[in-house]
Structure formats: structure tokens, C-alpha cells
Design a protein that fits this description.
The chain has helices at 2-40, 48-58, 60-81, 84-90, 99-136, 140-143, 250-255, 259-285, 296-320, 326-349, and strands at 150-151, 157-162, 170-180, 183-197, 200-214, 221-235. The longest helix is centred in the N-terminal third of the chain and has 39 residues, at 2-40. 55% of the residues lie in helices and 17% in strands. It is elongated, with a radius of gyration of 32 Å. With 369 residues, it is an alpha+beta fold. The protein has a six-stranded antiparallel sheet with strand order 1-2-3-4-5-6. A hairpin with a 6-residue loop joins strand 5 (200-214) and strand 6. It has ten helices and six strands, in the order H-H-H-H-H-H-E-E-E-E-E-E-H-H-H-H. It starts with a helix and ends in a 20-residue tail after the last helix.
């Protein structure tokens, strides 16, 4: 049908423009956030773009759902303003006739939402987590910038080096200040290098001096050394920490059905159901009242979107706490929204209204002089 094809073309243009705008906004926000993490030392500055890209990929299900919702509401609202819906209704067609072209347009987007939520979300989070953990587990010599005081990985020491060596595992003019066993220890050396001894990382210092001072000032012990080794990390072959639940694959969540994994699984599956419900809600919310203005229904639609996603996150926490099961949560939230959307659509399609009580007319009275 010509009308359906033109409607899908307009929806495609609106969806593409909205997607570009939202992705640009999210990338800008993630760039600022990632630069802040890099300034704090949580992210490698050379991997800022990768972290930002993985973060945006993780948020793609939410972005796609919002773009789909806004594009449908915006397109149908424009048709109301331009009186195209009046022509559609006067030809004997109802509002429910839009479900076919809308879902024919939305099914590839819903497929992408399912793919990103079940596969892309955990993969992007695992990549970001691996990069952050690798950067956190770098050696203390690597994390110290020349000419700057910096804390060690365990925040037990303060380092200052003059790193002019060709590789990142060696340094010169090393200064270390630490508090151990109620002692304030200051160690300085002309050079230092990282070595692995029996799988454990050590900082080997050469030609230096060590000063030990008790926290209760009772005396100072000064010693000089030619070679001194200090343990600076765990075993170099230690596996990465246990991945957080958001970075675990969907199959891993299915294999270990504990409450936390079930909550994450319900949230991922719920993103697909939410995207389908947004198509129905957008059709029901798209009417425009000229007295309210052009942005009135759009603001109400955004409020409905925020409320829906907040309920989705709240339900995830309830499932993780054991208050709800996965099936009960999915049925109560998404099934309830589906029923509400269908009732709302049926009311507008059949033009249902509340019955009004008619007041009988009072007979006219004449006054006599």
C-alpha cells in the first residue's frame, strides 16, 4: 500500500536523525566521563576512545528503544497536526490499522535490540572491565609518571621517579615513602627495575638508602644497600577478578540461575519486550491537542519512557533480592504495560468515552402579574 510505504519512509528518516543526535549526545557524555576516569588513573589514557566506544555499544539497546519511540511519536504527531489523520479516519480506517506498518518498520530494530541486549551488552562490559583491570594491574613503575608523586596499586606506598630508561620496567632516581608495621619508611635509590621471582613481582633497587622512623618518635634507623628487593604485586599469572554480572554472557547466566543472574537475565530479556511495547504506546500517545502545543505529547512520551525504564531497573533489583521471580516480573511489568497499551489503543480506535448523565430539561415557568 502506498500510504504504508510512505509512512515507513518517513519513520526511517525520523529514526535515522534521532539516532544520530542521541548517539552524539551519549558519546559526548561518555567522553567526558571516560576522561574523568583517565584523570583519576582508572583508565589508560591511550584507551579512552576504546572505552568510550564499548560503553556506547553497551547502551545501544536503550538508545535504539528511545529512537524508535521518538520517531513513531514524532511522525504520527506531525500527521495529526497536518490533518492527515483526519483524512485517514474519514476514509473509514481506524487507529489500529497503523499496527501493521509500524511493526513492519520496527521488527529489524527490535531484532537489533535483542542482539545488543543479549550479546552486545555483556561483551562490551567485559571488554571495558578487562581493560580497566589490566591497567590497574600494571606495575608500579608503569603507573608512575616522571616527576610526579603517585600512589601504588594497593595505596600502601608513594612513588616518585625520574624515568629516563628506554623501557617501562626500569627507572632512575627512585623515591618511595611507605608506612609499614608502625614505621614510616623512606627509601631512595639511584635505579630500579621490575623482576619476576617465582611468579611474584619485585621492585629491585640498586645503590640506595633506607630510613626507618617509628610513628612514635624514638629514633631513626638509617641503612645503605647495594641491592634491595620490595614486593609490589601478586603473582603475575593470577587470573582476572570475577567478572561482574553485567559482563557475564547470557549463557553463563542461564547456567548459574542464582538471584543476581536471574535479575540480570530478566533485565536483558525485558529490553526486547519494552521495545515492542514502546511501539504500541507510541501509537496510543501520538495524538496532538493544538491547544497544548507541539511538544506537549512529546514531553509526555519521554516521561512515559523514563517511568518504564525506571520500573525495569526497579524490577531487576527486586528479582535480585528474591522478591519476584523472572516470570512473575516479566508478566507483571511488560504484560501489564501491554494490556494498558491495548486498552488505550482500543479506546481511541473505537472512540470510547465515559457515559454522561443527561439532566432532564425543566419546564419553562411564566410569572403572573
Amino acid at each position: 500500500m502506498l500510504f504504508h510505504s510512505s509512512l515507513r519512509k518517513e519513520l526511517s528518516r525520523s529514526f535515522g536523525a534521532t539516532l544520530v543526535v542521541l548517539v552524539t549526545i551519549v558519546m559526548t557524555m561518555m567522553l567526558i566521563r571516560t576522561l574523568g576516569l583517565a584523570a583519576k588513573g582508572s583508565v589508560n589514557p591511550s584507551e579512552v576512545f576504546l572505552v568510550m566506544t564499548y560503553t556506547v555499544l553497551g547502551y545501544m539497546p536503550t538508545i535504539l528503544s528511545l529512537c524508535l519511540f521518538i520517531s513513531i511519536v514524532g511522525t504520527l504527531s506531525r500527521m495529526y497536526r497536518d490533518s492527515e489523520m483526519v483524512i485517514w479516519f474519514s476514509s473509514g480506517r481506524g487507529l489500529a490499522e497503523f499496527l501493521n506498518p509500524l511493526f513492519r518498520f520496527a521488527w529489524p530494530i527490535l531484532l537489533l535490540i535483542a542482539l545488543f541486549s543479549l550479546v552486545g551488552w555483556p561483551w562490551a562490559n567485559s571488554q571495558t572491565q578487562n581493560m580497566r583491570e589490566r591497567y590497574e594491574r600494571r606495575s608500579d613503575i608503569e603507573r608512575v609518571a616522571p616527576g610526579e608523586f603517585r600512589e601504588s596499586a594497593g595505596r600502601l606506598r608513594v612513588f616518585f621517579i625520574d624515568k629516563d630508561a628506554p623501557d617501562s620496567a626500569t627507572a632512575s632516581n627512585v623515591f618511595i615513602s611507605s608506612i609499614e608495621r608502625n614505621l614510616r619508611i623512606v627509601t631512595s635509590a639511584r635505579s630500579g627495575r621490575m623482576e619476576d621471582l617465582e611468579g611474584i613481582r619485585y621492585l629491585m633497587l640498586s645503590n640506595g638508602q633506607r630510613i626507618e622512623e617509628p610513628l612514635q618518635p624514638t629514633g631513626i634507623k638509617v641503612s645503605e644497600f647495594e641491592t634491595y628487593g620490595a614486593r609490589v604485586g601478586g603473582r603475575s599469572g593470577d587470573p582476572l577478578d570475577v567478572m561482574p554480572v553485567r559482563a557475564r554472557t547470557t549463557l553463563a547466566l542461564l547456567r548459574e540461575p542464582n538471584p543476581v543472574n536471574r535479575a540480570e537475565l530478566a533485565w536483558r530479556i525485558g529490553l526486547l519486550f519494552a521495545g515492542a511495547n514502546f511501539v504500541l504506546l507510541a501509537l496510543a500517545l501520538s495524538s496532538v491537542n493544538p491547544r497544548v502545543g507541539r511538544s506537549g505529547n512529546l514531553l509526555f512520551a519521554l516521561f512515559a519512557f523514563i517511568l518504564y525504564f525506571n520500573l525495569l531497573n526497579l524490577g531487576q533489583s527486586w528479582v535480585g533480592a528474591g522478591r519476584f521471580g523472572v516470570g512473575g516480573f516479566l508478566l507483571s511489568l511488560h504484560g501489564g504495560v501491554l494490556v494498558l497499551g491495548l486498552l488505550w489503543l482500543a479506546k481511541r480506535h473505537f472512540n470510547w468515552g465515559f457515559p454522561t448523565r443527561r439532566v432532564p430539561a425543566q419546564p419553562a415557568t411564566t410569572s403572573q402579574a
